[in-house]
Amino acid sequence: MTRDTTAQVARFWNDIAWEFDSIYSGANKNAFSRALDRFFRKDIYQRFDWVMAKCGDLRGKTICDIGCGSGRFVTEFAKRGAAQVTGVDVAPKMLRLARDLVEQDGVAERCDFVLNDVLNWTPDRTFDTTIAIGFWDYIADPLERLLLIRGFTRGTFLSAWPRFWTWRMPVRKARLQYIQGCPVYFFRQSTVHRLLESAGFEVLSSETVGKLRCVVARPK
Ligand SMILES: C[S@@+](CC[C@H](N)C(=O)[O-])C[C@H]1O[C@@H](n2cnc3c(N)ncnc32)[C@H](O)[C@@H]1O
């Protein structure tokens, strides 16, 4: 049986919520730090652009963002006309940032947030689109959560998976898991496709985006 590390992961992200969001906002960073982010954290910008390119016309749609963090995707979806966007995350400070952001952007009335692991969450509705970006990195055994996501997704599922054996894999494993105490996992393309298919999704497209595998899927 896989050990449940959610509490450890939640603590880690809670502690660095503001620091993580500053990769997007550039807050309190000089030009050099921002340039370092653009080089070393390039995946974060690339996966954002990938989602926005793939999500299509969102007007009137309902969207769920699993592991929504500081709400950067949530607010963008709402600004693009989504009817309702639900962000789910286990880190309270991430959700506080997300609530402030949607408030600031004037879209709070179409956004809601759930402090929970998808594993313990039973939504009372289904969603046109679900995303899980920068999330699978922290999940040892994705199938259980994928099955639940499949249950409440009626349209598109966009997911990004950290690829096995890129140069960043040993660096992240050492830094995040062994130094900072946040377990991190990596996935081969065949594993990602098998997991999605076992959960009842059909893979529509699958591409390499930097050090990630980005997949568009839909319920079979
Ligand atoms: C790298 S951040 C990504 C945030 C956002 N998706 C983005 O790309 O900007 C990972 C987020 O996943 C959340 N997370 C990790 N494991 C989770 C779980 N089991 N359930 C819900 N959220 C989780 C963390 O709290 C953190 O906010």
How is the topology of this model organized?
Elements: H1 6-15, H2 17-25, H3 31-40, H4 42-54, E1 62-66, H5 72-79, E2 84-89, H6 92-104, E3 111-115, E4 127-132, H7 143-152, E5 153-162, H8 168-179, H9 189-198, E6 201-209, E7 212-219
Question: Which key terms come to mind for this protein?
Answer:
220 residues; Rossmann fold; 9 helices; binds S-adenosylmethionine
Account of the protein in words:
With 220 residues, the protein is α/β, with parallel strands linked by helices. It has a single domain (6-219), classed as Vaccinia Virus protein VP39 (Rossmann fold), CATH 3.40.50.150. It is 43% helix and 22% strand. The protein contains nine helices and seven strands, in the order H-H-H-H-E-H-E-H-E-E-H-E-H-H-E-E. The protein has helices at 6-15, 17-25, 31-40, 42-54, 72-79, 92-104, 143-152, 168-179, 189-198, and strands at residues 62-66, 84-89, 111-115, 127-132, 153-162, 201-209, 212-219. It has a seven-stranded mixed beta sheet, sandwiched between helices. Bound molecules: S-adenosylmethionine. S-adenosylmethionine binds at residues 6, 9-10, 13, 67-69, 72, 88-91, 94, 117-118, 133-135, 138.
